[in-house]
Amino acid sequence: MTHSAFPTGTILGYPRIGRRRELKRAVEAFWSGSIDAAELETRAAALRADTRARLAELGLGRTDSAIPESFSYYDQVLDAAVAVGAVPARFSRLVGADGQVDLAGYFTIARGEGEDAPLEMTKWFDSNYHYLVPEIGPETDFSAHGERLVAQVEEARAAGYLTRPVLVGPVTFLALAKPVDGAPEGFRPLDRLADLVPVYAELLADLARAGAEWVQLDEPALVSESLEDAPERIVEAVAAAYDRLGAAEDRPALFVAAPYCALGDALPALAATPVEAIGLDLVKGTVPERLDPATEESLAAKTLVAGVVDGHNIWRGDLAAAFDRASALANLSGSVAVSSSTSLFHVPHDVADETKLDQRLVGWLAFADQKVAQIATLARGLTEGRDAIAGELDAATTALADRAEAPGVRVPAVRERLSALGEADFARADYDARVAAQASLELPELPTTTIGSFPQTGDIRRARARLTKGELTEAEYTAEMRAEIERVIRLQEELGLDVLVHGEPERNDMVQYFAELLDGFAVTEHGWVQSYGSRCTRPSLLWGDVSRPEPMTVGWSTYAQSLTDKPVKGMLTGPVTILAWSFVRDDQPLGDTARQVALALRDEIADLEASGIRVIQVDEPALRELLPLKRADQPAYLDWSVGSFRLATGGAAAATQVHTHLCYSEFGVVIDAIRNLDADVTSIEAARSRMEVVDDIAASGFDHGIGPGVYDIHSPRVPSVEEVRSLLERAVAEIPASRLWVNPDCGLKTRGYEETVASLEHIIEATRAVRAEVAVTA
Ligand code: GLN
Ligand code: ZN
Question: Domain Cobalamin-independent methionine synthase MetE N-terminal: where (predicted)?
């Protein structure tokens, strides 16, 4: 079998939402019924055509498989599920006579319909992208449906391109799946590998027939040690899968990419298979110094694709170092190519769209288009020699030097404060003393509260838009927000909640709000990245030393507190979450940056306390997300992440009740870290899993206040009083009532008022009933 050569420069994937979020708009228009499927297809095809043209213009080859077909209407894992026929039984009505799922059906699997819950959603490796979790059982009937991808390859060819289709690989697909409900104890989706691989072989054959010379299979499961299946099992699966796929006669050349971390022990296993090219993440990982002779021999015959341009962050970076790293692979193979370390869908489209950013900062940045150009440069260096690109390498080095010296990047006052920190700054009074001091809050047993935000109504969003456009003055905007805060406080008093919130109407986003008020951050105009489906976020850029020029939340919180005698929670976003949901400087350890943010929050907490706020919540929903994929790296991460939370809250008086909130129910994974946060009260998600998490909590001996959510805010459904009551009864059976709190799973900002009020009424009524039961037992 002979194959065309792998392109010298490529990317693992490109943003698919569109430079102005055209795909988001088209998809949402389809959902609302204002355009039909044909119109959606037309708009998506136009977007793909633009992407190919842009990538060619930026220097990727038109006809050498350098341009990836990485489009998706919603999610690449859902695409794979549909392509292998893995549609859950509850959606089997959506599969047509030809075995295919049409666009409407595809979105129904993603979003649910009536009683049929959508596929679960969870975070993609260590990113803030969420994929849909396939459901695989012993009976799942796999069959090949590559029509969409085939059509894209043909569409590209008709326009004069030879592109490279991208698919989630079979091992990663199964490793990310969960067993169907009712699967036998111990069953793992990966048990079905031998049945799935022949279907992938068929997909590959279809793509080859359509003219694809290379196909990319993404196998990030290979680099992770945090999946349910043991790393050894995944490595074995990869060997089996690619031996089988490689043995097929009628296949394209195979490029297996392993983004997000080092391949480590999986490299020899992959090297021993017949795949033609292997993609290595050389931003997060390195190639082992020594490889065994057999691995060296097999690698020598393959293309090594050096992922040296960071696909996960927005810095222009050290291009010369990237070139050297790629060139060094020449020791291992005569065929070396350069690529992004991951798909570029984690970064926005184009720095050139940012007209309001400081021009000096712009010179340090590279969004997707700039990264593609960098890769084209490096590829030219590989073919023509370093001298041919010396000018570009030097320009990047100069920008890096400029960045190191620019005002604001290293602020002496911030650095002195950090270096003066001692152990005492990370600890509060002991817990029992705090409980005693906080008795002055006079809370009932099973106190009720919410997570912070109330529904963000159209009026609130319009007011913010008008402020931005200059149609509202700052004073008019403040007045509108205050009126909203007053409504939310009155509502909570009427409902009878115990610890109130101000409702967060003034926050566009829980991270960006703070980024706009802190020094060291910049915000973009068009820097959207896909979070899931049609949902996008606009991460802020954390480029310099962080400090707080003035209080950020005190005005809103004290206003809210002035309206009521009940305690109102101050509401802050924690340092880890601020980092996780921003693009963060890469020129110092994350822990140093986190401690700078923590100090700014610490000052905010001191100001809140001084103005009479007695309960303060510091949200850390992203604590789990940044957990490194390699076990060996996890302790150091937990040390700095937990440390930064403790630094932020460590100055709070014993009488101040510190809350935290985490957005997931995999409590067990990070239980020690959560304990070490040492918050007085922790609220977590629990309603979706029907309080399963209380077992973990009880088993772990967690002995601070805990509020397992009783209301799934991801759904418009209103839980009944009985339902909430049974959840609470389940919780009090395992957790002493004196430590149990009652709250929803998360903030209410995406909900409407109608269901919010009804749900909160039911929660309060259920709580009263369970309080009475507990009193009787006592
Ligand atoms: N306080 C935030 C809110 O209620 C928390 C959001 C979150 O956990 N993602 O909206
Ligand atoms: Zn949450």
Answer: 10-331
Nearest residue (by CA) to ligand 1, atom 4, is 747
**Given CA atoms 519, 520, 525, 528 in this order, what sign does their dihedral have?**
negative
Residue to substitute in 488, 619, 750 for testing ligand 1 pocket (most ligand atoms within 8 angstroms of CB): 619
Ligand nearest to the CA of 750: 1
SS3 503: strand
Contact at 8 Å (CB) between 281 and 223?
yes
Instruction: Give CA–CA dist 469/479, Å, rounded.
Output: 17
**Mean pLDDT, each 10-residue run in order, the chain (778 residues):** 89 97 97 97 98 98 98 98 97 93 96 87 91 97 97 98 98 97 96 98 98 98 93 96 96 98 92 98 89 95 98 97 96 95 98 96 98 98 98 97 97 98 97 98 98 97 96 97 98 98 96 98 97 94 98 98 98 98 97 98 98 98 92 94 98 98 78 94 89 89 95 89 97 96 96 96 98 89
Give pTM, 2 decimals.
0.94
Per the CB < 8 A criterion, the answer to whether 215 and 168 are in contact is no
| CA dist 177 → 86, 137, 495, 553, 686 (Å) | 10, 10, 41, 41, 21
In order, the DSSP letters of 132-196 are: E--EE-TT-------HHHHHHHHHHHHTT---EEEEE-HHHHHHH-EEPTTPPTT--GGGGHHHH
762 is catalytic: no
Q: Nearest bound ligand to CA 456?
A: 1
Classified as helix, coil or strand, 537 is strand
